[in-house]
Amino acid sequence: MINSQRICPLCLSKSISGETIGSLRQPIFQCGNCHLAYTNPDFYPDYESERERYNLHYNKPEDERYRSFLNRAVLPTLPYLTTGLKALDYGCGSGPTIQFLLREKGISCSNFDPIFYPEFPQTTFDVIFATECVEHFHHPLIDFQKICSLLKTNGILTLMTHPYQKLEEFPNWYYTKDPTHVVFYHPKTFAFIEREFGLNILATPEERVYIFRKTS
User: Fold this and answer.
1) Contact (Cβ atoms closer than 8 angstroms) between residue 53 and residue 43
2) Which domain does 71 fall in, by range?
3) Side-chain half-sphere of 25: how many Cα atoms within 13 Å?
4) pLDDT at res. 157
5) β-pairing, 183-184 with 108-112?
6) Residue 201 is inside which H or E element, if any?
7) pTM, full prediction
């Protein structure tokens, strides 16, 4: 019998194609439909635990290593952008940095983060970056609906997260050592996101970066 803990939070399917554990011994299920791997919700951190964890991160604009890390997503997106566009850093964290990287290219960037910059935008954007945040989504279906509602038609969406290839990776995978990482994406998951949310994959410049255009 499949209980409510085994409903995929992205596609809402009850189909389970595999089960494993993460490196913190958290139960993880693999959706048989969209291939999202998701932690049993009983193991999700609460708001205060999340905030405490994020405050341990030293992700600041002046940190050259962090800027270089984000540029893995920003630089391959730039050929699709022009000066004067409006961007959004969705899930920007406590030290928004993409705004500085884009400002150097003549692109303004707003920030949204449910914990640190919780005022939800009241406008739409030409480009949205969601870098190293989608793995934190407790309700990825809702978050992707929000993201797409903020993105103009023909706008660009760049996602950055570390995808998995096989469930056998999980018990020793560094990405599962962070208790705030609760959903994990397979390349087939990105194909589902492309179909479900009216997107078109333009490029995958590296394993963890996907660039989409909104087509509808």
Assistant:
1) no
2) 4-214
3) 0
4) 98
5) unpaired
6) strand 199-206
7) 0.94
* pLDDT at 1 exceeding the cut of 60: no
Residue 51: exposure state from Cβ atoms within 10 A (0-12, 13-18, ≥19): middle
Q: Which two tokens stand for residue 166?
A: 């096989």
Strands 37-39 and 27-31 turn out to be antiparallel
Residue 2: its pLDDT value, please? 42
- Decide if 175 contacts 135 (C-beta within 8 A): yes
pLDDT tens-place string over residues 80-126:
999 999 999 999 998 999 999 999 889 999 999 999 999 999 999 99
189-193 — which CB contacts under 8 Å span 24+ positions?
189/10, 189/34, 189/35, 189/36, 189/163, 190/159, 190/163, 192/10, 192/11, 192/33, 192/34, 192/35, 192/36, 193/10, 193/34, 193/144
SS3 content of the chain, % helix, strand, coil (to 5): 35, 25, 40
* Number of domains observed in the structure of the chain: 1
Q: From start to end of 95-148, where are the E strands? A: 108-112, 125-131
The domain spanning residue 154 has which CATH number? 3.40.50.150
What residues contact residue 128 under an 8 Å CB cut-off, 6+ apart? 87, 88, 90, 147, 150, 151, 155, 156, 157, 158
